[in-house]
Design goal:
- This protein is mostly helical.
- It has one domain: Orthogonal Bundle (Jann2411-like fold).
- The protein is about 55% helix and about 10% strand.
- It is built from seven helices and four strands; from the N terminus they run αααααββαββα.
- The chain has a two-stranded antiparallel ribbon with strand order 1-2. A two-stranded antiparallel sheet has the order 3-4.
- The longest helix is centred in the N-terminal third of the chain and has 22 residues.
- This is CGNR zinc finger domain-containing protein.
- It holds the Pfam family zf-CGNR.
- InterPro entries: ABATE (IPR010852), ABATE_dom_sf (IPR023286), Znf_CGNR (IPR021005).
């Protein structure tokens, strides 16, 4: 079972923005994330639960970004209590038997159990500091730092590039302001 991919469900949800405003937008988000079967099962009741879960998961990432390890873990523990995980053996799409995590029959329950358990496994295996909020203004999207040296600071190459260009331009501006001392 690849729990990192489950943690990525949490990131997808936290970063969903207005995609949870309507059922159609949420289905499009899931389809674009390669979760077409989930998109087909999504209901309006699921959507309301996913909005609340998004808010709760965002507080975990915010605590981690503030380096509030205990706060992040407390929030994850509360989510584990609210969304108990039930492992289930399954086989589909030509894959061998493998584990899925579920909370019940609803898509939102499965999504919650998987996202919460994925983040929990990542935090207990790699540390709270592996949960991040993009440092590129005004982005503030969540990300998982799975780098070997814990060096990730941005949600994407685009944000990293944008921040580097902004820093370069600021250095050039500052250098242009410094009067030259001619001899």
């Amino acid at each position: 079972m690849d729990l990192i991919s489950y943690a990525e469900l949490a990131v997808l949800l936290v970063n969903s923005g207005s995609a949870l405003d309507s059922l159609e937008d949420a289905k499009r988000l899931l389809t674009e994330a390669g979760r077409e079967k989930d998109a087909a099962r999504l209901t309006r009741a699921d959507l309301a639960i996913l909005r609340e879960l998004r808010r709760e998961l965002a507080t975990v990432f915010a605590a981690a970004a503030r380096q509030d390890e205990h706060g992040a873990v407390e929030r994850l523990n509360a989510l584990l209590t609210r969304h108990p995980v039930h492992p289930q053996i399954t086989r589909h799409d030509g894959h061998h038997w493998h584990l899925h995590l579920t909370e019940g029959g609803r898509l939102s329950g499965e999504y919650a159990a998987a996202a919460v358990m994925g983040l929990t496994a990542l935090v207990t295996g790699l540390g709270v500091d592996r949960l991040g909020i993009c440092q590129s203004d005004p982005c503030r999207r969540a990300y998982l730092d799975t780098s070997s040296n814990r060096s990730r600071r941005y949600c994407s190459e685009r944000c990293a590039s944008r921040a580097n260009v902004a820093a370069y331009r600021a250095r050039r501006r500052d250098a242009a302001k410094v009067p030259s001392t001619g001899a």
